[in-house]
UniProtKB/TrEMBL annotation:
Keyword Secreted assigned: no
Coiled-coil region: 170-222
Keyword Signal attached: yes
Gene Ontology CC terms, in alphabetical order: glucosidase II complex
Signal sequence, renumbered to the chain: 1-22
Entry protein name: Glucosidase 2 subunit beta
Length: 565
């Protein structure tokens, strides 16, 4: 089954038989076969293609540099079937033949280091691939004179050193993660305790408010009993009304009496004139005893000093004043009194008594009255009407106590609501990010310094100065698949935990900035790389102990405790 032009392979075959000893475990396997596939190559007379065992070929056709099996399994040590391994769409042409590569690649024993598989295309391609095949066994045919020395000893040594370092770092990362998880659980407990305390505070606060409402009503009722207010209901106003009526009545009577007096005075004057004339004109010689007695009486009357019963100018002026109707310019200005009275208590009027005393006594009396009033207020006997609103101090104080209790209840309620939302918030597996919330890590990249604050924001700041730009606010966890080298140096897709930051500052002519933070396990929080994948859409690759041993939940909501709630 060999073709004449497959000289290179033939040379190789001459250099080493088809069934080169390959096993580090001492077993003999064809070249390029890994220990897990050794069982297919045990029969040294016939070989059955691994994925299509009905296709059988002589064992001598194994590794003869000609691809016989549709799955390439007859050429584990050459590149003859590399077209199969290179292509991935060979599985089914409807003929029932499986064309999927049966082997992962050429097996490099790499004694002194780690065995690994290298892709068949790189077998005998004239290049030493020490990164995968440190023993150089992939270039066994020495194509173009290529000779790859076995470097596994030194490469293995360096790898072990690095691996030891990596292991140490991973151990430290795992320990840190454990500490972070403990801190997170303590912080959660603190929130739960706080909620419990706040709940007690809330209930106490509600009871206090009920009590203060009752107290306010009681104080109001009590103070209402003490305060005399209003023009209509006040006793002083009633008294003033009565006094006004009485004054009017007396004034009317006075006017009548004054008129009667004036009339009597006129009449008396007329009579006096008659009697004077009578005295002058009577005949004293006419011996009439009755007339003589009358004249004597008149003379005695006329000789008596006047008693002032008649009018004189001064008393008339007084009477004129008194008889003027009450108003602004005369008598009592009732309107002014009534206005003054409004809003005042009887007590206030009593305190004004001081105004009626001689000025020398006024200060003394005012001091005494003020002290007395204070004493009455302090002892709850009279209401304190100091406030402009007309409410007593006691009512104002009671209302202030109620308002302050209500405002503390609002505060407690809002704290409770914040803490409760915090408890149901997704903080990731083990709520690990609860302990990291608000802590930040930054990295210089290009013309910017980038900052990541866990569970909060991502920011970008120009090194030239100026304000920072928000690249997003944390919204949720998600996951991304990225290709990573595995231990054997192969790129394999790995699912990574990611944190989505969205709704950052708007981009000019573009979307609001957003950042996808892709996490990988590491000893420290460190931004490894920042990229602007599309305009204003950034990705950050970050290491953190928080990302170690985390089951990825495909970004479907909470990765931790929230699912249990
Ligand atoms: C700033 C930065 C850049 C961004 C542009 C868009 O310069 O935020 O990352 O691409 O604005 O205008």
């Amino acid at each position: 089954m060999k073709r004449p032009n497959e000289l290179v392979a033939l040379l190789g075959i001459l250099a080493c038989s088809t069934v080169c000893a390959a096993g580090s475990d001492g077993s003999s396997r064809p070249r390029g076969v890994g220990p897990e596939f050794a069982k297919y190559y045990k029969d040294t007379s016939t070989f059955a293609c691994i994925s299509n065992p009905s296709i059988k070929i002589p064992f001598s056709s194994v590794n003869d540099d000609y691809c016989d099996c549709p799955d390439g399994s007859d050429e584990p040590g050459t590149a003859a079937c590399s077209h199969i391994s290179a292509s991935s769409i060979t599985s089914d042409f409807g003929d029932g033949v499986n064309r999927t590569p049966a082997l992962p690649g050429f097996y490099c024993v790499n004694k002194g280091h780690n065995p690994s598989y290298i892709s068949f295309q790189r077998v005998n391609d004239g290049a030493c691939d020490y990164d995968i095949c440190c023993d150089g066994s992939d270039e066994w045919a020495r194509v173009g004179g290529t000779k790859c020395d076995n470097r596994c000893k030194e490469i293995g040594k360096e790898w072990r050193k690095q691996e030891e370092q990596r292991q140490k770092s991973m151990t430290a990362a795992t320990r840190k993660r454990k500490e972070l998880a403990e801190t997170a659980s303590r912080l959660r407990k603190e929130v739960e305790d706080r909620i419990e305390n706040l709940e007690v505070e809330r209930q106490a606060s509600e009871l206090k408010i009920q009590g203060l409402k009752v107290e306010l009503e009681e104080v109001r009722a009590r103070e209402r009993g003490k305060v005399v207010k209003g023009q209509k209901q006040g006793k002083v106003n009633v008294l003033a009304g009565l006094a006004k009526e009485r004054v009017e009545e007396l004034r009317t009577i006075l006017l009548e009496v004054r008129q009667q007096r004036d009339e009597s005075v006129v009449r008396a004057a007329e009579l006096e004139a008659i009697l004077s004339k009578f005295k002058e004109e009577y005949n004293p010689n006419f011996n009439d005893e009755g007339v003589k007695r009358a004249v004597r009486s008149w003379e005695e009357y006329a000789a008596r000093e006047t008693t002032g019963g008649g009018s004189n100018a001064a008393s008339d002026r007084d009477l004129d004043e008194i008889c003027k109707p009450d108003g602004e310019d005369s008598g009592i200005n009732w309107e002014q009194w009534e206005n003054e009275i409004e809003g005042e208590t009887e007590l206030d009027l009593i305190y004004k008594i001081a105004a009626y005393f001689p000025p020398s006594l006024v200060n003394f009396i005012e001091d005494k009255l003020s002290d007395f009033r204070k004493l009455l207020v302090e002892n709850g006997i009279v209401a304190d009407t100091a406030s402009e609103s007309g409410e007593s101090k006691a009512v104002i104080d009671a209302r202030n106590r109620l308002s302050s209790a209500e405002s503390s209840l609002n505060d407690v309620t809002s704290q409770l609501s914040d803490h409760r939302s915090d408890l149901v918030k997704d903080y990731g597996h083990d709520e690990i990010f609860r302990s990291m919330k608000g802590s930040c890590v930054s990295r210089d990249s290009g013309e910017y310094t980038y900052e990541l604050c866990w569970m909060e924001k991502t920011k970008q700041k120009s090194k030239k100065g100026g304000m920072h730009t928000t690249m997003g606010n944390f919204v949720r966890f998600s996951s991304v698949t990225v290709d990573e080298f595995d231990a054997s140096g192969k790129l394999v897709p790995q699912e990574k935990l990611a944190l989505e930051y969205e709704n950052g500052q708007s981009c000019w002519n573009g979307p609001a900035r957003s950042t996808k933070v892709i996490l990988q396990c590491g000893e420290n929080d460190e931004i490894l790389k920042v990229a602007e994948d599309e305009k204003c859409m950034y990705s950050m690759h970050v290491t953190s102990p928080a990302a170690c041993d985390i089951p990825i939940n495909n970004g479907k909501g909470a990765t931790g405790r929230k699912d249990e709630l």
